[in-house]
Write a structure and sequence with these properties.
Keywords: Schiff base. The chain is of the alpha/beta class. Helix content is 52%, strand content 17%. Strand 4, helix 5 and strand 5 form a beta-alpha-beta unit. Helix 1 packs parallel to helix 3 and helix 4 packs across helix 5.
Length: 226
């Protein structure tokens, strides 16, 4: 099980990776749009600098035809580093790109997955990660228990190394569902993780513990320190 940050905000990445057990960062054109018009590769290199070489960085191509996507992938790898996972949408052209990149030994994250068949095809094409879009699929009335279970079983039964990287979440219940069904990792907006921990109930428990201690031993800045 692994958590990744679905963000391109440098301050957020710096802040939240110091709090949460983060194993990487995912980006896409829509996420990059949120930080404004920046020099893309300079910004992505800054993300790499923040998370370090041991964590995964996933960067998406923008083109829609195979030749353009392959050129963009080459540029991404050249401008950032060779360990970046190239995010490729699972279209007919995208599947060609996934196969080609894997033949070259490049890490690939298959993205924009809305169906079991897309996931199966991406697995067979050799993708390292597959990213089913949970909330978007749910909005299309997909049975997410059936979908996720089928993908998990497909990977298990064929003993392949592809990992499920769940994406597109609007609430923590969706994240929990992915992980309990056997998803290997999830990429999440940092605020969702923050809100899962900093709830009023948790804060009340902390305050109650402190109050109970003070009622017996008195207060103090460092109550357990001598």
């Amino acid at each position: 099980m692994a958590f990744l940050l679905d963000s391109a905000n440098l301050a957020d990445i710096q802040r939240y990776q110091e709090i949460f057990p983060i194993e990487g960062v995912t980006t896409n054109p829509s996420i990059l749009k949120k930080v404004g018009k920046v020099d893309t590769y300079t910004h992505l290199r800054e993300i790499r600098k923040i998370i370090g070489p041991e964590k995964t960085l996933h960067v998406q191509v923008v083109g829609t035809d195979a030749d353009t996507m392959l050129e963009e992938a080459d540029c991404i790898l050249k401008e950032i580093d060779a360990t970046v996972f190239i995010k490729v949408p699972v279209t007919t052209e995208g599947l060609k790109v996934i196969k080609t990149l894997k033949n070259r030994g490049v890490g690939v994250t298959a993205t924009a997955i809305y169906s079991k068949m897309q996931a199966f095809l991406a697995i067979e094409a050799g993708a390292d990660y597959i990213a089913p879009y949970y909330n978007r699929m749910e909005n299309l009335n997909s049975d997410m228990t059936d979908t996720m279970t089928a993908i998990v079983e497909y990977i298990r039964d064929r003993k392949v190394v592809t990992k499920i990287l769940g994406a597109s979440y609007k609430n923590i219940a969706q994240v929990n569902h992915t992980l309990t069904l056997g998803g290997h990792c999830v990429t999440v907006n940092p605020e969702l993780l923050w809100n899962a921990v900093e709830t009023p109930a948790v804060q009340k428990a902390v305050v109650d513990f402190q109050s109970d201690w003070e009622s017996v031993y008195g207060g103090g800045a460092n109550m357990l320190l001598k």
